[in-house]
Design goal:
Blueprint: H1 2-15, E1 24-25, E2 33-35, E3 52-58, H2 63-79, E4 84-90, H3 94-102, E5 109-112, H4 117-121, E6 129-133, E7 138-143, H5 148-157
Parallel strand pairs: 3-4, 4-5
Antiparallel strand pairs: 1-7, 2-5, 3-6, 6-7
Length: 174
C-alpha cells in the first residue's frame, strides 16, 4: 500500500509541466455546450486573445476538482475585472452536468466536452488539470496544481517559470 502511494505521488508530481512555454499556441477548444455564460455563445480562444485564460479540466465525480472550486471561484471573483477568463471544462454527460450545476453556485463558465477532444488536445490525463493561456494566446502553464501565485505571474509577465526550490538537508551537525 505504501509503495502504491509513493507511485501515485510520483505520477502526480511528474505530470505537472511547468517549463515556460511562451511559444506554444493554444489549441482551439471545441465545446458542445457552455453554462454560466449570459449570452450562451460558446467562446473561441482566438476571440479571447488579450485576456489571460485559465482552463480548469474537471469532472463531477472528481473530489479534488470539486474541493478546488471555492478557490477557483475566489480567484475568478478577484481577477475577472483584470481580463482573466476562467473556463471549467468537463466531459460529463449533459444530464449529469446540469444536475450537478443546479446544485452548485459556480460563477465562471463551464464548458461541456463530451467527446473529450479538449482533454486530448491539452494532454489531460489526470484531473484536476489547469492550463493557463497568456494574452498572446500561448500556453504558459499546464499542470495539476494551480494557485494565485501562478496566475499573478502570468498576468504580470505573460509567462510562468517555476521557482527552483532549495534543497533542505536532513543532516544534523554535532
Amino acid at each position: 500500500m505504501k509503495s502504491l502511494l509513493i507511485i501515485l505521488i510520483f505520477l502526480v508530481l511528474t505530470s505537472c509541466s511547468t517549463e515556460p512555454k511562451t511559444k506554444i499556441p493554444a489549441k482551439e477548444i471545441v465545446l458542445e455546450g457552455i453554462y454560466n455564460k449570459s449570452d450562451g455563445i460558446i467562446p473561441k480562444l482566438k476571440e479571447l486573445k488579450g485576456n489571460t485564460v485559465v482552463l480548469d479540466f474537471w469532472a463531477t465525480w472528481c473530489a479534488p476538482c470539486i474541493i478546488a472550486f471555492p478557490k477557483i471561484t475566489e480567484l475568478h471573483n478577484k481577477y475577472s475585472n483584470q481580463n482573466v477568463v476562467f473556463i471549467g471544462i468537463t466531459n460529463d454527460p449533459k444530464e449529469k452536468l446540469e444536475t450537478f450545476l443546479n446544485e452548485q453556485n459556480i460563477p465562471f463558465w463551464i464548458g461541456q466536452d463530451t467527446d473529450g477532444s479538449a482533454f486530448k488536445d491539452y494532454g489531460v490525463t489526470w484531473i484536476p488539470n489547469y492550463v493557463v493561456i497568456n494574452r498572446k494566446g500561448n500556453v504558459v502553464y499546464n499542470g495539476n496544481f494551480f494557485d494565485e501565485y501562478i496566475l499573478k505571474e502570468v498576468i504580470e509577465t505573460d509567462t510562468y517559470v517555476e521557482q527552483e526550490k532549495e534543497e533542505v538537508s536532513m543532516e544534523t551537525t554535532d
